[in-house]
Design a protein that fits this description.
Helix 1 runs parallel beside helix 2, helix 1 packs across helix 6 and helix 4 crosses helix 5. The protein has one domain: HUPs (Rossmann fold). It is α/β, with parallel strands linked by helices and about 190 residues long. Strands 3-2-1-4 form a four-stranded parallel sheet, sandwiched between helices. Helix 2 links the parallel strand 2 and strand 3. The radius of gyration is 17 Å and the shape is globular.
Length: about 190
C-alpha cells in the first residue's frame, strides 16, 4: 500500500517508518502540526525531521504554516478536550492530503507515543477516514517505543520534552493541576 504517514516529530517517526516499510508499504511523510508552540520549538522539530528524512530518503509533504491562532481558536474554552480537537485537526489534514495524493491509506506517528491517547487517536482516525473516503491504517506502534528512542539518541536527533501544545508544556512545569502558578503580590 501507498501510505501517508502524518509525522509529529522525527523521533516518533523512526519506528513507524521502519515498521511500515518493513511491511513492504511505500511510505510518504506529512508534516502538519499547528499545535506546536512556541515557534522556536516548531522550528526545532522541523529541522530534526528534515535531518532524519534526508538520512532516510523519506519523502515528506510539508505544511510549514505556523497557524498558532487556528489551533488556539479550536481549543480555547475546551482545554479538557484539547487532544480530541488537536488529533482531529491533524488527522483530517493528513486524510485530505492523502486522498488528494492518491494514497491508499493514511496513518500517524501519534500511534507511536505511549504518552498520547491511543484509543482516541484510533477512533478519530477511523472517523476521519470514513468522512474523507480513505482508510485509516491502524497499527499499534508503541511496541517499538524503546527501539525508536534508542535510535533517535544514536542519530543525535532533537528530542522534545512535551507533545507540542502550550498546555502540555505548562503541565510539564506546573503539573496537571497547574500547581506552581499561584498569584503573588508584592507589597
Amino acid at each position: 500500500m501507498k501510505i501517508l504517514l502524518h509525522i509529529c516529530c522525527a523521533p516518533c517517526a523512526i519506528y513507524p517508518v521502519d515498521s511500515l516499510t518493513g511491511g513492504q508499504h511505500y511510505v510518504h511523510g506529512f508534516f502538519y502540526n499547528p499545535n506546536i508552540q512556541p515557534y522556536q520549538e516548531f522550528s526545532r522539530r522541523v529541522a530534526a525531521l528534515e535531518e532524519y528524512a534526508g538520512r532516510r530518503k523519506l519523502p515528506v509533504i510539508w505544511d510549514r504554516a505556523y497557524d498558532l491562532e487556528k489551533f488556539l481558536r479550536l481549543v480555547v474554552f475546551r482545554e479538557q478536550e484539547r487532544c480530541r480537537f488537536c488529533y482531529h485537526l491533524r488527522l483530517t489534514a493528513a486524510a485530505r492530503t492523502a486522498r488528494g495524493g492518491n494514497f491508499d491509506a493514511f496513518t500517524s506517528t501519534l500511534l507511536y507515543s505511549k504518552y498520547q491517547k491511543h484509543a482516541l487517536i484510533k477512533e478519530i482516525g477511523e472517523q476521519v477516514g470514513r468522512e474523507v473516503g480513505l482508510p485509516f491504517y491502524y497499527e499499534d506502534f508503541r511496541e517499538g517505543w524503546q527501539s525508536g528512542q534508542e535510535q533517535s539518541k544514536a542519530l543525535g536527533l532533537y528530542r522534545q520534552q512535551y507533545c507540542g501544545c502550550i498546555y502540555s508544556e505548562r503541565e510539564r512545569y506546573a503539573g496537571a493541576r497547574g500547581q506552581g502558578s499561584e498569584k503573588t503580590t508584592d507589597n
